[in-house]
Prior knowledge:
Helix content is 42%, strand content 18%. The protein is an alpha+beta fold. It has two domains: 178 residues, Jelly Rolls (Sandwich), CATH 2.60.120.10; 111 residues, Arc Repressor Mutant, subunit A (Orthogonal Bundle). This is AraC family transcriptional regulator. Keywords: DNA-binding, Transcription, Transcription regulation. It comes from Citrobacter arsenatis. GO terms for molecular function: DNA-binding transcription factor activity; sequence-specific DNA binding.
Amino acid sequence: xxxxxxxxxxxxxxxxxxxxxxxxxxxxxxxxxxxxxxxxxxxxxxxxxxxxxxxxxxxxxxxxxxxxxxxxxxxxxxxxxxxxxxxxxxxxxxxxxxxxxxxxxxxxxxxxxxxxxxxxxxxxxxxxxxxxxxxxxxxxxxxxxxxxxxxxxxxxxxxxxxxxxxxxxxxxxxxxxxxxxxxxxxxxxxxxxxxxxxxxxxxxxxxxxxxxxxxxxxxxxxxxxxxxxxxxxxxxxxxxxxxxxxxxxxxxxxxxxxxxxxxxxxxxxxxxxxxxxxxxxxxxxxxxxxxxxxxx
Length: 296
């Protein structure tokens, strides 16, 4: 089974539509406060993505599909540069006809249905954006066109056909993301051991903690020897290597967002920049700067 199959097997993840409608004039919107992974599809017009006040904002246009596989602070806005504090929150209006100064959005949540599927999504990149003009699976663009046709016929948040289409888009977006990013199948194997899966999720969410061997064993309610045996069996990695891989995984998400290495190392659990560089090269086989060059 490929990585995408791992992530979506058995219907372990579904989508739910939260908002379907139109914003006009000046506005800002975010689902971050709900604490769930989310998706945002631009059905018409344009808007800008603000990643926690990082500049410049990213322009989104009709046909662009944005997934936050892990909940992350952001705003969608009507302006490329106006202060977030100066933009109002607004209620969506119904999509009724075309409008030159409006933005039509379909927003919702990704709902992993088990600890195993939570782990699988935790190991995907935080943010994944597919643009209408990108050379990706034709099925994603075809699903967008079907979605647009259904919305134009019935812009109802409770439309079950829309829900099925967003489920299908999730499947193909996950498939696309796993083809672009190396997801460690050995870490995915820990999904079959719930205490280990919960530990890996906790480390991803809090990489700055010390996470000693005793800490990790205690978190899983195992003795040190049992913990070492279980994690080796599940992943083929030692506990320290699992910890290093997860910390570097988190750093990759930060690097992709343009955050400098000197602002990253302590937030992912390293006491020095040199220690971070050594761990990064040991896990990735290359230095952070070289990784970023190849990523771009």
